[in-house]
Predict the structure.
Amino acid sequence: MFQSFAVLLGKYAANSISEFSLSSFFINYFYMLSIICLMFQSIFWNKTLKSMPLSVAYPFTGIVYFFIIFYSWYFFHESIKINNFFGVCIIMIGLYFLGKENSQVKSSEKQV
């Protein structure tokens, strides 16, 4: 969630300045909030990696695509192409099966 908020805030920041400069980066509160979100994302990511294998945790970062598509439509009134929709659906289906497989492995480990 923090990663998707960082992207959302980054878009707001990019839209709020007329020309990028180093000083505009430091005085823009959208950029600062984006950096704070990325800081929290890295903290939670490290906690996740302590409790899950990387091969399971990393694919779930794909859920960010769903939120980005939603944010771009809801907050910025961007049109969503059918390819974007299908692509996100394919990712969500893959995450469903990955989560299902991982929960089956954990339940079989508990039985042993």
